[in-house]
Amino acid sequence: MAEPDHLKRKDTAPIVFVARALRDFGDGFVVLLVPFYLAARGLDAFEIGVVATLGLFGSALTTLAIGWISQRFDERLLLIAASILMAATGLTFAISEVTALFLLMAFIGTINPSSGSVSIFVPLEHPLLAGSVADRERTTTFARYSLIGALAAAFGSLAAGSPQLLARAGMTEIGALQLMFLAYALLGLACAAIYARIPRDGAHAAQTRPAPLTRSRGIVLRLAALFSIDAFAGGFVVPMLMALWLLQKFELSLASAGVFFMATGLLSAISQPVAGWLSARIGLVNTMVWTHIPASLALIATAFAPTLELALALLLLRALLSQMDVPARSSYVMAVVMPEERAAAASVTSVPRSLAAAASPAIAGALFTAGYSALPLVICAVLKIAYDLTLLALFRNVRPPEEMQA
């Protein structure tokens, strides 16, 4: 009897986990260093918001392109190419002194201004993971995938304090920041080497060769529209802008910001396996909704917190809850589409998220500059609550295979 496809590709998931750990570690410190680095280069809050917008908008376009060409090329080769682009991004930020090049590389590169993995890697990694396990193990696998990414990003956030240590040792501030971008470039090269270890038959199995959206088109487009609302809301409080908000309102230092964002990352990481456990008991859609709404209420309270200590406490509470929907969402999309349409579904649901999220950082930066620093946090929370309630109304009866079997 022939082996099930997921057994043929069981070695793929550990490789993806290791590569994600490396690139999320890099994202963890780069997302905090970029606003400080660009501010040191003379850019104001609005211009830094534009950089974040370009990063998300460019990510949307490259993700769309990846979803299209993944039907023609091996995901393994595309992941290697994406890793080389990551290396080029870090190198450009490290050696360039031209603002236009920062903007260009933010657009075409892999700088990730948001929390979580919103990048060209998503439509390539998700189908590989979903195809490497049985249905009943899918959400747990995505929870591990998210856990590893969150832990790596948390320790990356802690590493964001390295430039201050290097500066105390005699290095200039700019030089120390440039060294961190060089480290990001080296992580990209390491990811390329790791992705090269994916078994050649771990990508396009004959039975699940990627295909365009056909039978799954309707549900994917509805999910994509909803996810775009969530992403547009999240763009108002991407870590890059939250670091800037804490700096401007409470004068939080770079080293303190690194420690704080490490703590938020650890709390997000802790929540990932809990999300897998919870979804097995109340369902994927309920997990997405009923963990998200309390997180949004905590964000509204943060906007009006009178002290740094209270603001940080509320943001830590939000961090514990706000990312529990990530593995549930990823698993849900892979579950409700045809196996051969998973790559296209991952791309189509990711692209609107990136496009929608691309508009809001620049708006948030403009609001910061105009003195309305609390408004982006409130807008984000209200929109996310509206998204959650709509998702529950439309999809609570659309169940993945393992829930129907149970």
Description of the structure:
With about 400 residues, the protein is mostly helical. The chain has a single domain (about 5-205, about 210-405), classed as MFS general substrate transporter like domains (Growth Hormone, Chain: A, Up-down Bundle). It contains 18 helices and no strands. It has helices at about 5-10, 10-40, 45-70, 75-95, 100-110, 120-130, 135-160, 160-170, 175-195, 215-235, 240-250, 255-280, 285-305, 310-320, 325-335, 340-370, 375-395, 400-405. The longest helix is centred in the first third of the chain and has 29 residues, at about 10-40. The relative contact order is 0.17.
Query: How many domains make up the 3D coordinates?
Result: 1
Task: Give the CATH H-level superfamily.
Answer: MFS general substrate transporter like domains
User: What is the level-2 CATH architecture name?
Assistant: Up-down Bundle
Content-based structural category: mainly alpha
Q: Look up the CATH topology.
A: Growth Hormone, Chain: A
List the helices and strands in order. Answer: HHHHHHHHHHHHHHHHHH
Mean pLDDT: 84
Parts with pLDDT < 50 across at least 5 consecutive residues? 1-8, 202-207
CATH C-level: Mainly Alpha
